[in-house]
Amino acid sequence: MAPSSLTLEGLKSLLFFPPPPPPLYHHHFLLLLLLLLLVLPCCPAASINDSFVFHNFRQSNLILSDSSIITKKGALRLTNDSTPTPNWGYMGHAFYPEALKFKTTPAGTAQSFSTRFVFAIVSKAPQSGGHGLAFVIAPSTNLSNAKGSHYLGLFDGSPIGNSSNHIFAVEFDTVIEPSLQDIDDNHVGVDIDSPISKASSTASYYTDDGKNETVVLDSRTLIQAWIDYDGHINLLNVTIAPLSSHPGKPKRPLISYSVDLSPILHEHMSAGFSASTQSIASEHYVLAWSFMINGQAPELDLSQLAPIPTASTSMWKSRFLPYVFIPIFLLLWIVAGISWEIYRRRKLTHEKIEEWELEYPHRLPYKEVYRATEGFNEKKLLGKGGFGSIYKGVLHRNGLEVAVKRVSHGAEQGMKEFVAEVSTLGRLRHKNLVQLQGWCRRGEELLLIYDLMPNGSLDSYIFGDKRCLSWGERVNILKGIASSLLYLHEEWEQIVVHRDVKASNVLLDAAMNGKLGDFGLARLYDYGTNAKTTHIVGTVGYMAPELSSTYKATTSSDVFSYGALLLEVACGRRPACPGRPGEEVLLVNLVHSLWMEGRILSAVDKRLGLDYIEEEAEVVLKLGLHCSQAAPEARPNMRQVVKFLNGDLALEAMELQDQVMEDDQDFDQLVLQFSSSRIT
Q1: For residue 11, what pLDDT is reported?
Q2: What's residue 87's pLDDT?
Q3: Radius of gyration over alpha carbons of the chain, in Å?
Q4: Which residues face 586 on adjacent strands?
Q5: Which comes out higher in pLDDT, residue 596 or 11?
Q6: What DSSP character marks residue 524?
Q7: Residues 6+ positions from 442 with CB-CB distance below 8 Å
Q8: What is the DSSP string of 577-602?
């Protein structure tokens, strides 16, 4: 019978068949029973859920061996690259001081476990060191029989391995070794009883939009790693990400490997780290570590990370010794000039990142955006608007051409709300929406990075000196924008109100397809809820009249703006022209008047001549009037608009009610009311 069974049987005998105690000691006997009842249920709990966390290693009592040390600032350094290495290189090991319970019984199945840690590999030059480090679970903290070099201080000289090793490791390898079937010199691998990895992948991580970004392990970069084993489904996930660009855990793991660790792990095992060097040396650091069995490893406080020591080098010996005979004043002038240039560049690209900014995805470093636009060079300026300037740029990380919009913003709380919504909008995906590639904040300035549209904006073709768009191109553009608004209003996970639909915010790609851009004013709200009261924003002529009283931007106000877009694209003139006489001031009134006179087609852009389809032109013009009605409830929704444009629904199904304006006086009042036409 097992010891636990004996204990329970003994307790039962005491509880149900106790020997009669002497009367004098009766109270002692009752006290003993009470203590047994209190202590016994608590005994197994300590071994079921092992957990610990080290935000740094100042107060840790890790078991260190070989060349591993704890630095004065609290970093765990496993190897050192400053000393000559022997034939098999140096090794360094560090283990948690207590054995962890990976099985409930010796013959049982391995329990789930989770660990996360921050590490860095430092060499004299990136990708010039070796050999790597590993997280390891071993039967003992004594790995003195293991070799360094490409065996990472885990195994002996046999590449085949031995099933009696009972070693599980996840390696971060920076040197390719063909005899061990390494895939490259910068990879992550899963090792079980052998230095030949069972599963491996080039070191990288997946961004929130699904892109695979390479991570150079040997580059002094702070890298966070997650290792999660699910004992219920026998699945091992390994995930990494650089701390600077992706502080949170990526949604998709780098390695997902189906394996049963029950034959590998004993009931009690030791967990820790191992690293090694050979002729090519590196310093291998672990800066924080957490672990849990049957649960997620605790979060790490990244603000407490110990710094990596900086190796001192003699700049005078390496750079200036050949110039000792140059006059001193010239040398000082050169040094002063270089120092000033470095200071100037660092000042131009310096940014202070607040903690709340790390909560939102798609953030790009300001330095990268600055470099992409060549320091916001005037030669890269594409245009200026009410909210700021737009620059052309190229992201060096992927060579993507982008448009960078600089937006000035006010209070920090308003900035937080703005960034939250912009980050959410980065998840929008539709062929007729300009894709938001990222954002960046510096002080009160917000930078929005979009895909670059090579043919510019629609208004430069309608009102500028570019070629006249054909009628077919205009209809295709209008249908595309209608489709994108339907997606925003009804088909995404939240309702998105653009609030600034107009020709200058419709951009054209290489194939002259229209894409709706500039989401700087967009607002989101959940289905089934009402739009929130907000500041009046937009452009005169495109803003729905109810905004002056309700202060609520809705999908219906977007429909009004789209109606203005329909009319200006078909007629070739802006929605409002204060210099024109009478009813020609507002385009909607002019088109309505021509409709009433039975000659609505005379409103079509004169530059087209007769080169247009009359039935389509009539639908576009009449639909523009229906969308521009004063009462929001009288306007069609975007699903109906799409059907009208595609010919799936006849306009006769709708009744035209009120116009927006009746005369010039009303227009003057509107201009006065929205004298500051774009306010955040």
Answers
A1: 38
A2: 56
A3: 35
A4: 576
A5: 596
A6: E
A7: 351, 366
A8: -TTS-GGGSBHHHHHHHHHHTT-GGG
Residue corresponding to tokens 């729905």: 544
Q: Give the three-class secondary structure for 675.
A: coil
What's at 182, amino acid-wise?
Answer: D
What is the C-alpha to C-alpha distance for residues 461 and 506, in angstroms, rounded to an integer? Answer: 11
Residue with tokens 């006059």: 327
Residue keyed to tokens 């792990």: 265
| Closest-CA residue to 506 (of 466, 471, 462, 440) | 462
Calpha distance 419→552 (Å, rounded): 20
DSSP state of 552: B
Catalytic-labelled residue, pool 66, 193, 500, 558: 500
Strand-pairing partners, residue 523, are 497
Long-range contacts, stretch 5-8, CB < 8 angstroms, 24+ apart: 7/40
Any idea which of 255-259, 377-381, 606-610 has the lowest mean pLDDT? Answer: 377-381
Cα(501)–Cα(522) distance, integer angstroms:
10
For residue 535, is the peptide bond before it cis, meaning its omega torsion is within 30 degrees of 0? no
E strand or H helix that includes residue 27? helix 26-39
CA–CA separation, 205 and 141 (whole Å) = 31
CB 477 within 8 Å of CB 513? yes
Q: Cα(621)–Cα(619) distance, rounded to whole angstroms?
A: 6
Question: How confident is residue 318, by pLDDT bands cut at 50, 70 and 90?
Answer: very low
User: Hey, what domains does the chain have and what are their CATH numbers?
Assistant: 47-298 (2.60.120.200), 357-451 (3.30.200.20), 461-673 (1.10.510.10)
Q: Give the residue among 517, 394, 397, 526 at the shortest CA–CA distance from 457.
A: 517
Contact between 154 and 66 (Cβ < 8 Å): no
457, two tokens? 């904006």
Q: Is 185 assigned a catalytic role?
A: no
| 3-state SS class at 356 | helix
**Cα distance between residue 538 and residue 547, in whole Å:** 10
Plot region of 472 (φ>0 → left; ψ -120 to 50 → alpha; else → beta): alpha
pLDDT at 183: 93
Q: What per-residue confidence (pLDDT) applies to 398?
A: 83
Q: What is the mean pLDDT of residues 409-434?
A: 74
- Say which DSSP state 532 is in: P
Name the β-bridge partners of 184: none
Report CA 458 to chain centroid distance, whole Å: 31
For residue range 93-111, what is the model confidence (pLDDT) as tens digits? Answer: 999 999 999 999 999 999 9
Distance CA 356, CA 367 (A): 19
Task: Quote the CA–CA distance of 504 and 382 in Å, as a whole number.
Answer: 13
DSSP string, 181-203: T---SSEEEEEESSSS-SEEEES
Amino acid (1-letter code) at residue 206:
Y
* Tokens coding 563: 């109606």
Residues 250 and 543: their CA atoms lie apart, in Å, by: 41
Please name the residue that has the structure tokens 């900014």. Answer: 357
The candidate with the shortest Cα–Cα distance to 623, out of 593, 646, 651, 598, is 651
How big is the CA angle at 640 (ends 637 and 646), to the nearest 5 degrees?
A: 140
Nearest to 506 by CA among 455, 556, 443: 455
Evaluate whether 159 touches 196 at the Cβ level (below 8 Å).
yes
Give the CA dihedral 511, 558, 448, 389, nearest 10 degrees.
Answer: 80
Identify the bridge partners of residue 388 per DSSP, sorted by sequence position: 385
Quickly state the pLDDT bin for 6 (edges 50, 70, 90): very low
Exposed/middle/buried for residue 372 (C-beta within 10 Å: 0-12, 13-18, 19+) = buried
